[in-house]
Amino acid sequence: MASNIVPGNVDGTYPIAGQDNSAQGFRDNFTAIKNNFTEAKTEIESLQDNKASTNANSDFSNNVVSQATFKDTAETVYPHGSVGSGSVTLDHENGHYQTLTVTADTTFAFQNFPSTGTLGRIILDITLAPTAVTLTFPTAVIKADNVTGSDGTSDQITQASEGHFMNSFLQTEEPPCLCIN
Q: Is the pTM of this model over 0.85?
């Protein structure tokens, strides 16, 4: 943002000591100073309203951060808790890492993945206890060949035993998700 403050409009040599100085010169300098203060106030308020904060939440929604390097960052964990049976909606707005304990057959749905042209990701950390269960995903979900318990053609994954399983769901455009185990 270029500044509209013009320091050159203020005559720093005015008034001249020991001379009769015109009142117009005083008025011109005061007007230039007032205009610069007014512009400075506007620019400072804009910076305060639109800055990234280290002591408060910063909203970068619908903005692209380019050429950033991240080090020692963390992602939130969204715990769904335990599901005896029924359905679970994996909401992208809950974060990229979500956990769930499944004790019976469960059907999954997805919502709030980002718009086309961007990549959305959910890592689902599932703990299965204590027996075999069937996990049913929307038919649009493509399951990779290495997904444990999938025949690659149906919308179901059968986990034969208790254990710990992680699946990643990625979306760039239709079909909405790709399941990788």
A: no
